[in-house]
Amino acid sequence: MEAKSVKKPTPKAMKDFYNLLGNTVLSNIVNMTVWFGIIFFIYLETKSVFATSIISGLYLLATASTGFWLGSIVDHHKKKNVMLFSSLFTLPTFIIGFLIYVLAGPETFKDPSNPLLWVFVVVLLLGIIMGNLRTIALPTIVTILVSAEERDKTNGLVGSAGGVAFLVVSVISGFLIASSGMYLLLILAILLTIVAIVHLATIPVPENKIVSTHEETLDESGQPVAKVGKLDLKGTYKAIKAVPGLITLILFTTFNNFLGGVFMSLMDAYGLSLVPVQTWGLIWGGLSCAFILGGIIITKKGLGKNPLKSLFIANIIIWSISCLFTIQPSIILLCVGMFIYLAVVPFIEASEHTIIQKVVPAERQGRVFGFAQSIEQAASPLTAFLIGPLAQFFFIPLMTDGAGARLIGSWFGTGPSRGIALVFTVAGFIGLAVTLLAMRTKFYKQLSAAYQKGE
Questions:
Q1: Cα separation of 118 and 275, whole Å?
Q2: CA-CA distance, 109 to 112, in Å (whole number)?
Q3: Are 418 and 399 in contact (CB under 8 A)?
Q4: Cβ neighbourhood burial of 128 (10 Å; 0-12, 13-18, 19+)
Q5: Cβ-proximal residues to 260 (8 Å cutoff; 6+ apart), any chain
Q6: 82 is in which domain, residue-wise?
Q7: Which one-letter DSSP state was computed for residue 113?
Q8: Which phi and psi angles does 213 have, rounded to 5°?
Q9: β-pair partners for 216
Q10: What is the mean pLDDT of residues 264-290?
C-alpha cells in the first residue's frame, strides 16, 4: 500500500522545496548550535560527566515523549504553518534563556546542583525540542512533492543538507563558547530564528488536501478512523502493524538508539579529554563533511532496490567502527573512525524514511514518523540517564586504578578517558551482534517483500 504523491512537480514547486530545505537548514543550525553550546558550556563550567548525561537524557526523554503529539500536529495542519509555529515557539524560549544567562551570576553555572542552572537548561531545551516539528514535517513534504522512484535520492539530499548544518554548527559552536560562553551564541540564535521566520513566510508549500480541525480522517476505504486533533495511537499502530515487519524495524532502531545514547552522552566528554574545545569544534566541522558525503552518494546512486538491506549493511559498518575507534587514546583514530561512522549514518535515516514513505499512506505519515520517533527515542533517555553514572562511578574507576586498568591497561591505556573509551567499545560489540542476528529473522524478509510489493 504505497503512499501516493502528487503529479510530477514543476520546476517552480521544486524551487520552493529547495527554499524550504534551505530554511530548515538555517533553523537546524540555530537549534543545533544552542544544543552543542549547552553541552560544551555546562561540561566546561562544571567538569561533570554526570551533568551532561542528565542534560542528554532530558533531551532524549522530551523527544521520545512528544513525537506522538508532534506527528499528529503535522498530519492535521498545513506543513508550512507547522514549521512557522515551530520557530515562533522557539524564539521566546531563546530570549528567556538569554535573560537568565545575563542576569544570573557566573557561579550559577559552575554548580551542577544549582536550580537556576537547570531552569536555564530546560527553557532552552523546550525551544530545541519544538524544532522536531520540522524534522517530522519535512519527509511528509518529500512524499507530497517527489515520486516514489526519486524519494531515496531526495532523502539523500536532505541528509546532505543536514550535514551542511552540522558543519556550520561544529565550527562556530566551540568558538562561540570559548569566546563568550553562551552570550554571543544566544544572540546569534535569536537573530537567525527571526530571519528563518521571515523567510519561511514567503515560501509557498503546495498540498493536495488540508484536513481541517473539525473533520474526520478517513482510511483508504473512506471510513472515519479518528477525530482530527486526537493522537489516534490505536489507528497509527494499526497502520504500522498492517505492514509486515515495519514494527520490528522500529523496534530494531529503538535498540540501536539505546546504544546510541552512549555516544550522545559521552562523545563530547571523550573528545574534550583529548583536545581543547576550539579544536574539538573544528574537528566536528571536518567530520560533518562525512554527513554531506554520505548524502551526496545517496543523491547520486540511491539506496538500491532494497533500502532495508542498505540499512542493515550501514548498521554493520557503524557498529564495527564503534568496536575499534577508541581502542587507543588517539585523536587521529577517533577522527578516522567517526568520519566513516558519520558518512554511513545518512544511509540509515534515508533508508527508513524511504521505506515509510513507500508503505504508509500519505495522510498518516506524520503520525507514523512521530510514532517512530517516540518509540525509537524511548530507549535513549534510559541510556543517557544510566550511562553517566555508570561511566562516572564504574567504568572510569575501573580503568583508572581498578581491575580493568590492571588487566588491559598496558595496551588499552588507563585513566578517566579510557573508562569512557571502554564504554564505546562494549556498545560496538553489542550493536554488531544484534544487527547480525536481526538480519536472520523472518521480519527482515517480510518487510523487504512488503517494500517490493509496493512498487
A1: 27
A2: 7
A3: yes
A4: buried
A5: 380, 383
A6: 11-205+228-453
A7: T
A8: -75, 0
A9: 227
A10: 80
- Residues 26-51 have pLDDT tens digits of 998 899 899 888 888 888 888 777 78
Residue 397, in any domain of the structure: yes
Are 140 and 362 spatial neighbours (Cβ–Cβ below 8 Å)? yes
pLDDT of residue 10: 61
Q: What is the three-class DSSP state of 146?
A: coil
Residue 218 backbone dihedrals phi, psi, to 5 degrees? -105, 145
Phi then psi for 182, rounded to 5 degrees?
A: -90, 0
Task: Give the percent of the chain with pLDDT over 90.
Answer: 13
Q: How many domains would you assign to the chain?
A: 1
Type of residue numbered 221? S
The answer to whether residues 344 and 317 touch, using CB atoms and an 8 Å cutoff, is yes
Closest CA to 319 of 427, 418, 391: 427
* CA within 13 Å, CB half, 396: 17
* DSSP string for 186-214: HHHHHHHHHHHHHHHTT-----S----TT
How far apart (Å, rounded) are the C-alpha atoms in residues 151 and 374? 23
The reply to whether 80 falls in a domain is yes
Among candidate residues 68, 100, 153, 46, the one with its CA nearest the CA of residue 366: 68
- Please list the residues that pair with 227 across neighbouring strands: 216
Q: Among candidates 52, 34, 50, which has minimal Cα distance to 126?
A: 34
Residue 426 has pLDDT above 50, yes or no: yes
Cα angle 91, 72, 224; round to 5: 155
The amino acid sitting at 4 is K
Q: Does residue 222 lie in a domain region?
A: no
DSSP 241-303: HTSTTHHHHHHHHHHHHHHHHHHHHHHHHHHHTTS-HHHHHHHHHHHHHHHHHHHHHHHHH--
Q: Side chain identity at 417, as an amino acid letter?
A: S
Please tell me the distance from the alpha carbon of residue 392 to that of residue 428, in angstroms, as a whole number. 19
Q: What confidence score (pLDDT) does residue 93 get? A: 95
CATH number at residue 323: 1.20.1250.20
Is residue 23 a part of any domain in this protein?
yes
If one counts every other C-beta atom within 10 angstroms of the C-beta of residue 94, the result is 26
User: Which pTM was predicted?
Assistant: 0.66
Residue by residue, DSSP assigns 307-366 as HHHHHHHHHHHHHHHHHHTTSSS-HHHHHHHHHHHHHHHHHHHHHHHHHHHHHS-GGGHH
Q: Which helix (H) or strand (E) element contains residue 224?
A: strand 224-227
